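The instructor's notes for this session suggest beginning with a concrete chain rather than abstract definitions. Hand out the sequence below and ask the class to guess, before any prediction is shown, which regions might be ordered.
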Amino acid sequence: ASAVLRCWRCSTDVSNGEFCNDPFLPDTISEQQRYWSYVNCTYSVGVKSVNARPVCKKLVQEVYGKRVISRSCFYEDMDDPADKCSMDQTSSYIKTVYCRTCTTDGCNGATGSSVPWVGLLLLPLLLASFRQLLCK
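After discussion, reveal the predicted structure:
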């Protein structure tokens, strides 16, 4: 039997959901919030495919112009890329800003995509600097 995946389940658009916002700080969450919001994600009846697996999902959307962050359990096909959910169709008043799935406990508690993008943006500068050092 495989281990049970645990994910954060919360949303900033509910009355007590402010703790779900970024930066997400699990250490500041009360025991009661943790009890209801850090949940087991197991295979559920009604999942569309036998190739589906449970994953944690973080979704950032603008709903009528208001930023909403939600973290949840989700089921995806094992062949789906981690950002497939960002391409899902939504209503015209909903804009998906960010969506990723992940497969380790609590991974949807990560703050977002800023760190990898900063690294990608700095990479050409680092390579150019490195090339100058080598050519001296």
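Then share the key points. Residues 113-122 have pLDDT under 50 and may be disordered. The helical segments are 31-37, 114-135.
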